[in-house]
Amino acid sequence: MGKILKLHQMLLRKEISAKELTESYIAKVNNENPALNAYVRVTEEKALTTADIIDRKIAGGLTLDLLSGIPMALKDNISTKGIETSCCSKILEGYVPVYDATTWHRLDEKGAVLLGKTNMDEFAMGCTCETSVFGASRNPQNTGFVAGGSSGGSATAVAADLALFSLGSDTGGSVRQPASFCGCVGLKPTYGAVSRYGLIAYASSLDTVGVMAQNVEDTAVVFDSISGFDPMDSTSQADYVPCTVDSLEKSIKGRKIGVPKELLEKADPEVKALLLKSLEKYENLGCFVEFFSMPNLITALPAYYIIACAEASSNLGRYDSVRFGNRAESFESIHQMICKTRGEMFGNEVKKRIMLGTFVLSDGYYDKYYAKAQRLRQCLMAEFEKVFAKYDVLITPTSPKTAFKIGQIQNDKEASFNADVCTVCANLAGLPALSLDCGKDEKGLPVGLQIIGNRFRESLILNMARQFEIARGTESEL
Ligand code: GLN
User: Fold this and answer.
1) Closest ligand 1 atom to the C-alpha of 174?
2) Which of 121, 162, 258, 352 fits as disulfide partner to 391, beta carbons 3.0 to 4.6 Å?
3) Phi, psi of 108, deg, nearest 5
4) With bands split at pLDDT 50, 70 and 90, how would you rate the model's confidence at 230?
5) Ligand 1 environment, Cβ below 6 A
6) Does the active-site annotation cover 150?
């Protein structure tokens, strides 16, 4: 049984009140957050108000949603009406949205208790959370290591049990990679399965809102609560009716698992060894495992960085201090106002990507870089179609390495780009993918296994993950 369901039953039986539960989490956050830096803003008042409403509902015998009274967190790029949402950037410091993101709106309606906004790489650009204006989140398994990124704070909060679940965003791996580094579950949905309305854009054709939780069942519960059609997002899928929880306990006997050699070979020996051991577990569960080659998977990484930066350069144009964003203090002309604002208030990583994106879209280079990357994306999608005619799911490492030391790759662009080699393909092809803990390396740091499914097969990848979790035998207990 998942932790959310257990707490739900305790709330119904009045073994604990929503207020007590919320207060215990707030106390924990106040205690542990200074060392972990998972939250950049704690919303204590809002949390206690919601808890109070839930307690009154319970007292009145009203029906309660599974998520009512459950303490949770949101990445700082998910818009929250009346609550600052800064993308951990100086340019949006103090920005208070006037509307809720659909994902948050759906959770809020169900009575989920928002504990606060979590740390992230500035504008979700990075893989260590170190580009945050608030400094890096720490890995709860060992605070000398990064939490991963960009949703580092969300992963830390969940793995350290400073929240039952959190929402993050995944453009190239930002939910799965930190989940893998910190040792929790991370689900990136199919593009179009979860509304992007109110998610502050990084690269719109790749952006998704994903779920992080302490176990697979909780992940499924949250996914079912936030997914489904939203008229406010033009890329939302109209005919998708999600219900993944019911499939979790199904047998996976006879399922065909494909393992692309190209991604396995990228992994460090310890990561590879644990992955191979996990595949044996799947074989013991009656699955067929086959190693195969998909050479164009290697083109995903350069194609991703060209497309992501191109889209970012366009999306971030709105921060000119007129439409959005803070303004530089002194300037002599409008031109200088915009230049100084963007120069002073964006961090270096963001500026680098805007410049790279502008370059690949510029006259003379568009065909050479951007159009070529789009063609590679098309080829990759076509290849995945063929692969999923043969296999039910693909399994790869989530990240070729375990968590980096704080500062280790801060100035090493190649290492940080390479960290995304296993995750970006799912974003380019719009596929659902999940990261699940499959053991620890010699340093005691978690290793993540990634399950990739065909479009809208969230039920299947969660089912595959749940059965592995049972076989692994380490269900997190209350
Ligand atoms: N590390 C990748 C990047 O910096 C992915 C980030 C994300 O998924 N938001 O682009």
Assistant:
1) 8
2) 258
3) -65, -40
4) very high
5) 124-127, 150, 169-174, 202, 308, 420
6) yes
Domains of the chain: 3-254+394-472 (3.90.1300.10), 297-373 (no CATH)
For the segment 341-377, what is each residue's pLDDT rounded down to a tens digit?
Answer: 999 999 999 999 999 999 999 999 999 999 999 999 9
Strand arrangement, sheet containing 113-118: 39-42, 113-118, 71-75, 165-169, 209-213, 185-188, 433-440, 446-453, 393-397, 256-260, 288-292
Q: What is the mean pLDDT of residues 314-337?
A: 96
In terms of Cβ atoms closer than 10 Å to its own Cβ (0-12, 13-18, 19+), residue 383 is middle
CA angle 8, 14, 19 (to 5 degrees): 80
Question: Which tens digit of pLDDT belongs to each residue from 415-459?
Answer: 899 999 999 999 999 999 999 999 999 999 999 999 999 999 999
The alpha carbon of 275 and the centre of ligand 1 are apart by a number of angstroms equal to 23
pLDDT at 138 over 50: yes
Q: Which of 68, 89, 150, 459 is catalytic?
A: 150
Which residue, by CA, sits nearest to atom 5 of ligand 1? 172
Is 225 marked active-site?
Answer: no
Q: For a substitution probing ligand 1, which of 171, 209, 416 has the most ligand atoms within 8 Å of its CB?
A: 171
Q: Is 174 a catalytic residue?
A: yes
Q: Ligand 1, residues 132, 205, 420, 427: which to mutate, most atoms within 8 A of Cβ?
A: 420
3-state helix, strand, coil in the chain (%, to 5): 45, 15, 40
Mutation probe of ligand 1 site: the residue of 76, 78, 119, 127 with most atoms within 8 A of C-beta: 127
Residues in the chain: 478
Residue 477: partners with Cβ closer than 8 Å, 6 or more residues away: none
Query: How many Å separate Cα 182 from the centre of its chain?
Result: 12
Residue at 70: amino acid letter: I
